[in-house]
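User: Show me an example of a complex going from sequences to structure tokens.

Assistant: Sure. Here are the input components:
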Amino acid sequence: MQGSLAPDTLMVGHTQAHAAHAEHPDHRVFGVLVFLVAEACLFLGLFIAYLTYSLTAPVWPPEGTPERELLLPGINTLILISSSFVIHRAEPAIKANDVKGLRLWFALTALMGAIFLAGQIYEYSNLEFGLTTNLFASTFYVLTGFHGLHVAAGLLFILAVLWRSLKPGHYSAQHHFGVEAAELYWHFVDVVWIVLFILLYLL
Amino acid sequence: MTQLQDNPNLAAAPKASMDPPAEPWWRFFTFSTDHKVIGIQYLVTTFFFYLVGGALATAVRAELATPEADFLGFERYNGAFTVHATIMIFLWIVPALVGGFGNYLVPLMIGARDMAFPKLNAVAFWMIPPTGILLLVSLLTEAPAAGWTSYPPLSLISGQLGEELWILSILLGGTSSILAGVNFFVTILKMRMPGMKLGDMPLFCWAMLATSVLTLIATPVLAGALILLSFDLLAGTAFFNPSGGGDPVVYQHMFWFYSHPAVYIMILPVFGMISEILPVHARKPIFAYKAIAYSSLAICFLGLIVWAHHMFTSGTPDWMRVFFMIATMAIAVPTGIKVFSWLATLWGGKIRLNSAMLFGMGFVSMFVIGGLSGIILSSVPLDVHVHDTYFVVAHLHYVLFGGSVFGIYAGLYHWFPKMTGRMMNEFWGRVHFVLTFVGFNICFLPMHKLGLMGMPRRVAQYDPQFADLNWISSVGAFILAISTLPFLVNAIYSWVAGPKAGDNPWQALSLEWTTTSPPPHQNFYGDPILLTGPYDYGLHSKETLDYFAAQLQTLRELSLMEAESSHS
């Protein structure tokens, strides 16, 4: 309601729009899924560009690229994958009206996400190549950095849900769209990392 | 069905006012979440950009009126055609069709109160003005000069600031487009009124469904390409720079993976609008509803796998050329199905030759010419000769101007009475059509010949042997520039002081015409009801139609009374 209609029609509009809102189910979760399809296409485009570079180059990574250490990114990967299972526990919790459980699992996920980001920053600062060293280095930084931005966004998302859960009754067994959306987004970020890890570290 | 007119409460009650609420003008400058306000915001904003892009086109044609680069000069000429194309695509045709008509019509046609996500809708609209501002600012600095395709390495060496502003502008516009795509996909699949199946929807909604799928799949890939291009431009990486081991052809693939489907984003909604307009003004049911609906989906699918036909001269391997040539030619099948269905719809109809119909039929004829030159271009042996010549310029303008813009004009004349509650002037509408049609053909028809003679595109200076045809073309462009004036004056005057339109001036049957003009905030008084199919012209007797109209009126009055009593 913009409050700019004539008063009598405003009332008509208000009651009817209100009634109409109750009529139809909540489509926001579906909307998030559709949005994630678009996000997936963004990453798919970048992955295919990367694969084109790696498959058409005579040597990949180009000669002179320093070896990448696997231990730290491996641990990081395990943390991020586990966090998906952790955040998944939050949904049954809120469906049982257990806000404390929701807070616990979300806080734990936020912590694991923060550790992942810290690990990535640590890895960046210790790598022996920079953004413009060669084509592999550029793709490495841009792809992991772009994913890292998504992790950071997901982290903010989770913290926002945590903040909102402090208000009594904000999330309930019936109304917890924010919880579901944050979880979906986090799973998405996780799956993207698995593909990235295989592409950049293992292949 | 019970006779609602006999309701005793109604007989006793005073006639409730059916006049729609007057929209205060400033409402169109607010962060409104009403899809109808947003739709008009899109249409007016994008029309403004159309005029800016048109002014640039006129400057380009003024430069090309003579063989020497004596009007704009080389640098400004490159900036002018780059920004002209970018504005016309990203700030006029795409947002006018998807944001403007899509927003205004889809919820009304499916009997919804609004889009699925009204706030998101408003956010998507308010990204459009900054998109345009960034682009226009780039024109004032060192303008982007690499064409709307921004191919590296040219885009990396032709002015960093302008190019980066261009990239930011497209990223913003693309984000707006993706958000709109999410909204339309969910709205069409989930918000239809109870009882309306997908197969009961007007064909415009099918077209918008296919368009939103293309937007969701293709636009993000362009964003990826532009992010990589930004790194090359600003951070010194070499994704697309061969000197650092990168590959400019990768950019071309990513760019065209979006920009070819973008052609269908710019034409599918027009196909949908034409499928609405022709049956109304030919007074006949649409021919082959299902074939038109499914051919939209077929075009959507094929449109995603033909992009490399823009790259036949980019060192593309032969097997790829053959695949993309055949896939491209296959698009003629679903497109042909549509064209023949429209012709069959017109065949034997009681055609009203008003402005909307003139532009609708103008669209069909001009689009067929553009489609046929498209088939010529998809053939590899021909394309390698006319690639980057004026033949391509002629083709794309027949599709995007003769197709999309004619379609937008047809839609504006057709739905103006619904949007504003007032009729446009028919005489000046016809003057507008004649000027546009004549100017368009004088401007773009000679370009086919110029292309076959070998005149390259994107040059400010050319061989004197091309001078005569270029001069004719420039005259056509000036006629086109003038042709917008009768429309502009007509639209503004009619919006303020045109004769009242009433609910349904065209005696149309789709759902948006069953409500008032303009519709109330909640779109329908009471629940929308489907009394007929959207294309049942000539299938009901006059008595039946009068009965339907009486039923609608009664339902409206009842709902107004209910609302009043619940608040008193």
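The lines above are the inputs; the final block is the predicted structure for all two components together. Helices of chain A lie at 7-23, 28-56, 71-88, 90-95, 99-126, 135-165, 177-202.
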